[in-house]
Write a structure and sequence with these properties.
Layout: E1 15-17, H1 22-32, E2 36-41, E3 44-50, H2 51-60, E4 74-78, E5 91-95, E6 101-106, H3 107-128, E7 132-136, E8 142-145, H4 147-153, H5 157-160, H6 165-168, E9 170-171, H7 175-179, E10 184-191, E11 194-205, E12 208-218, H8 219-245, E13 249-253, E14 259-264, H9 268-271, H10 276-279, H11 284-289, E15 293-294, H12 297-304, E16 308-314, E17 319-329, E18 332-342, H13 373-386, E19 392-395, H14 402-412, E20 420-424, H15 430-438, E21 439-440, E22 452-453, H16 455-458, E23 463-467, H17 474-486, E24 488-489, E25 498-499, E26 503-508, H18 512-517, H19 523-529, E27 532-535, H20 546-561, E28 566-567, H21 569-577, H22 583-597, E29 602-603, H23 605-613, H24 631-650, H25 653-660, H26 664-675
Parallel strand pairs: 1-2, 4-5, 19-26, 19-27, 20-23, 23-26, 28-29
Antiparallel strand pairs: 2-3, 5-6, 7-8, 7-12, 9-10, 10-11, 11-12, 13-14, 13-18, 15-16, 16-17, 17-18, 21-22, 24-25
Helix pairs in contact: 1-2, 13-14, 17-19, 20-22, 21-23, 21-24, 24-25, 25-26
C-alpha cells in the first residue's frame, strides 16, 4: 500500500523572517506551542528552526537579540506525490500546484506515521479476510488471533487467549515438529464440529522459533470459492475466445492511464515494438508522448465522462477503431474499458495531390482498400498476373470494384507508365461502339468529318479495360476477337490494318459461360478472354473490409465537404451487419448520405439504420434471394441477419429478443455461435 504526502503532512508551523532574533523565535514558539518554525526570506521558504536547535543557540549565544541561525536541509515535495524518502534532509515541506507550502513533517515522523498506517492497514486486512490466523508461544498457548479466527472457531480472543491450542484443536499434525522448524500445508483440522483446512509454520524471532502460526479457513468456504473460481475461469476463457474470434482487443486502464490488463485479440502491429506482456503497467499518456499513437481515447473518455469512439493510428499507419467506456463504482471512476479492432488496410493508400485539397466534390481515387484474407490472396494473384501481358477476365457483382482491380493490375505491370484506357461497353450505343473502339476514317459515315483514332490506338503501349464486355453485340465480338488474335485493328471505313501493342483487361457481372450456351456470346471470344480469370468476392463475403472501406470513404468525404464526422462503434457494427447487395458502390453512396445529411458530429447506429434500411417507409422489408442454397443454410442465414440487425439497432439481447419474439438466451446463443 502506498500513501501520498498530503495524507501524512502536519499543519504548517509558525513562520518567521530570516532576520528575526533568538528572542523573537522563543516568544513565537512559546506562544504557538510549536516545536518548529519555518524561515522565510521575501515570502520564500528558505529553511527551518527546531526547538532543539533554538535551545542550543540560547546556550551558545552571548545575547538573545542576535540573529538566528537556521537549517536549510529542507526538502520540498508535491503534496499529491507518493511518499518517498531521501538522505541528507530532516524536514519535508509539502507544496501545492502554486508552489505554496501547505504542510510539513519530519523524516522520522513520516517513517513512524507510515509504519503505523501500514500496521493499521494490515490489521484491518487480517480482520476483514476470510482467513483465520492464530499464533502461540513455545508452550502452544494462544497469544494472538484475528477476528476471522474467532468467527470460525466460535470463541472470542478473550476466552481462547492463554489456552493450549494443542489441546483444543483436533489436527493431524505434531506441533512439536512445527516448533522444531517443520512446515505443514493443506492440513485438515476441526474444532467445535467445524472442519477447517490450513497451514502450520514456526514463528521466528532473532533466528529462534518462539511459537507457531496456524493460518486456516473453513472447508465449506474453500469449496465454494473453488466452485466460483472455476465458474469465473470458464467464463473468462469463454469471453476471451469470443473476443479473440471477433478480433476485438480489450484493455483495462486506470484513471491515471496505467494499463492493467490486456485480453482478447492483441493488436500486435499497432503496439509494436511492445509485446502484450510489456504493455501491462505502461501508461497510455507516456505512450502518447512518445508518439506511439494518436489520439488518446482514454483522455477523451475522461474529459467526456461517458463512452466515446474514435479511430486511432500509429506511426506505421496502422488504424484501429476504439471505444472507451468509463466504469463507475459508487459515483467514483474506477477504470476505463477500451475495446479496439484493427481496421487498417493491407496496402498503403495513395496520397492526395495538392490540387485535390480544395475540391468541391469527393474524388475517390482508385485505392484498393481491404484487410480480409480473401482479398489479400486476390491481390497476391494480381501481382503475379501483372508481370505478364496475358488477357485477364475479371468477374464480380456490380459495384464490387472490378475497375479498381483492373487499375491495380495496370499499376503493378511494366506498362504502368503508359496509358490506361477504360470503356464501359454497355454505356455506349451500339452504332457508336465500333468507332469508339477502333476509330474511323474521314467520310466513313455522315458525321465522320475527320479521321479519328479509336481507344485501342489510344492505349497503344499501355492497357485497355473493357468493362461490361458481355454487352458487346455479336457482330462486334468478331472484330474484337481479331484484335485479340492478331493484335491489329482496322478503322471503320478503312482498309489498312494497324498494329497495336496493348494489353486487354475485361470485366463482367454476368455468367459468360451461360451466355455462350445461350448463343448470346461467342465461344471463341470467351476462351480468348478467359486466359486468366479473376473472381472478386462480393462485399457481404468479406465483411472484414467493410470497416476499412467505410473509414476510407469517411476521410475522403470529410476532406471534400469540410466536415469532421466520426463513427460510433454501433454505427460501424450496423454497417457490417448489412448485406450490401450494391457492394462497394452502395457503401460509398450510403457514406456520402451519412456525411451530407447527418447533423451530429458522431454517426450513430440510428443514423446508419435510417440511411441503409430507411425505416420511415411503411412498407415491410423483403428478403432478396441471389442464388440457390440448401434450405437449412438459407434459414440459418436469414436468422443470423435478423439477429445481427436487431442487436445492432436495439443494442441489447433483451430488447432484440422482444422485437424478434424469442428469448434473450436464444439471441445470446446464436450470437455466440456466429462468432465461432
Amino acid at each position: 500500500m502506498r500513501w501520498k504526502w498530503q495524507e501524512i503532512l502536519l499543519p504548517l508551523p509558525p513562520r518567521v523572517s530570516s532576520q528575526a532574533t533568538v528572542q523573537d523565535v522563543i516568544d513565537l514558539l512559546a506562544r504557538e506551542e510549536s516545536r518548529v518554525a519555518f524561515i522565510y526570506e521575501k515570502e520564500k521558504l528558505v529553511g527551518y528552526l527546531t526547538l532543539a536547535d533554538l535551545l542550543k543557540q540560547v546556550t551558545d549565544a552571548s545575547s538573545l537579540t542576535q540573529p538566528i541561525d537556521f537549517e536549510k536541509d529542507l526538502l520540498l515535495v508535491r503534496e499529491t506525490g507518493w511518499v518517498e524518502f531521501c538522505h541528507n534532509c530532516h524536514i519535508v515541506a509539502g507544496v501545492n500546484e502554486q508552489n505554496e507550502a501547505v504542510g510539513y513533517i519530519t523524516i522520522q515522523e513520516a517513517k513512524d506515521t507510515l509504519t503505523r498506517l501500514q500496521l493499521e492497514f494490515l490489521n484491518h486486512g487480517l480482520n476483514s479476510a476470510e482467513i483465520g490466523i492464530v499464533t502461540t508461544n513455545q508452550q502452544f498457548e494462544v497469544n494472538f488471533m484475528n477476528e476471522t479466527a474467532g468467527q470460525i472457531l466460535g470463541l472470542p480472543r478473550s476466552i481462547l487467549a492463554g489456552r493450549s491450542y494443542k489441546n483444543i484443536l483436533a489436527a493431524d499434525v505434531e506441533m512439536e515438529a512445527i516448533l522444531a522448524g517443520d512446515k505443514k500445508f493443506g492440513v485438515d483440522s476441526s474444532f467445535n464440529f467445524k472442519k477447517m483446512t490450513g497451514h502450520f509454520s514456526p514463528v521466528y524471532h532473532n533466528g529462534q522459533a518462539q511459537g507457531i502460526v496456524h493460518v486456516f479457513y473453513l472447508q465449506e468456504h474453500l469449496e465454494k470459492a473453488v466452485s466460483e473460481l472455476q465458474f469465473v475461469r470458464e467464463l473468462s476463457e469463454e469471453l476471451q475466445a469470443i473476443y479473440a474470434a471477433s478480433n476485438e482487443q480489450i484493455l483495462v486502464i486506470q484513471p491515471s492511464g496505467e494499463i492493467t490488463s490486456v485480453a482478447g485479440a492483441f493488436l500486435q502491429e499497432f503496439w509494436r515494438p511492445y509485446s502484450k506482456e510489456e504493455l501491462i503497467r505502461l501508461n497510455v499518456y507516456d505512450l502518447e508522448a512518445k508518439g506511439l499513437f494518436e489520439p488518446n481515447i482514454v483522455d477523451l473518455c475522461l474529459k467526456e465522462q461517458h463512452r466515446v469512439s474514435a479511430a486511432q493510428s500509429n506511426k506505421q499507419n496502422i488504424n484501429i477503431l476504439s471505444t472507451a467506456a468509463p466504469v463507475f463504482k459508487k459515483g467514483e471512476l474506477e477504470k476505463i474499458i477500451v475495446l479496439s479492432r484493427d481496421v487498417s488496410t493491407e496496402e498503403p493508400l495513395q496520397k492526395k495531390k495538392p490540387e485535390d485539397e480544395n475540391r468541391d466534390t469527393p474524388n475517390f481515387m482508385k485505392n484498393l482498400v481491404y484487410r480480409s484474407l480473401v482479398m489479400t490472396e486476390l491481390v497476391e494473384k494480381i501481382k503475379e498476373v501483372a508481370e505478364t501481358d496475358s488477357t485477364v477476365l475479371i468477374s464480380g457483382e456490380s459495384g464490387a470494384g472490378k475497375e479498381v482491380i483492373a487499375s491495380r493490375i495496370h499499376s503493378y505491370s511494366q506498362r504502368s507508365n503508359e496509358t490506361f484506357v477504360t470503356i464501359n461497353c454497355g454505356a455506349i450505343p451500339e452504332n457508336l461502339l465500333e468507332s469508339e473502339l477502333f476509330g474511323h476514317e474521314k467520310g466513313a459515315f455522315t458525321s465522320a468529318v475527320e479521321k479519328k483514332k479509336g481507344l485501342f490506338e489510344a492505349a497503344d503501349g499501355g492497357t485497355i479495360f473493357l468493362d461490361e464486355i458481355s454487352e458487346i453485340p455479336l457482330h462486334m465480338q468478331v472484330k474484337l476477337l481479331r484484335v485479340l488474335q492478331e493484335r491489329e485493328i482496322v478503322r471503320v471505313g478503312g482498309l489498312v490494318p494497324i498494329k497495336v501493342n496493348v494489353r486487354v483487361l475485361a470485366a463482367t457481372n454476368r455468367n459468360l459461360r451461360k451466355m455462350v450456351t445461350a448463343q448470346t456470346f461467342r465461344e471463341d471470344l470467351f476462351y480468348r478472354l478467359h486466359v486468366i480469370p479473376l473472381q472478386i468476392p462480393p462485399l457481404r463475403k468479406r465483411k472484414e473490409d467493410i470497416a476499412p472501406l467505410a473509414l476510407y470513404f469517411l476521410d475522403e468525404l470529410n476532406a471534400a465537404y469540410k466536415k469532421e464526422k466520426k463513427f460510433s462503434r454501433e454505427g460501424l457494427q450496423l454497417l457490417e451487419s448489412y448485406q450490401w447487395p450494391g457492394n462497394i458502390r452502395e457503401l460509398q453512396n450510403v457514406m456520402e448520405r451519412l456525411v451530407v445529411m447527418g447533423r451530429k458530429e458522431v454517426i450513430s447506429g440510428d443514423d446508419v439504420f435510417r440511411a441503409v434500411w430507411n425505416t420511415e417507409t411503411e412498407e415491410s422489408a423483403h428478403l432478396t434471394v441471389r442464388g440457390i442454397m440448401p434450405l437449412k443454410e438459407a434459414v440459418e442465414e436469414v436468422e443470423d441477419q435478423l439477429i445481427r440487425l436487431a442487436v445492432g439497432k436495439y443494442g441489447t439481447a433483451a430488447k432484440a429478443s422482444s422485437v424478434l419474439g424469442v428469448s434473450a438466451s436464444t439471441i445470446s446463443r446464436r450470437m455466440k455461435k456466429a462468432l465461432k
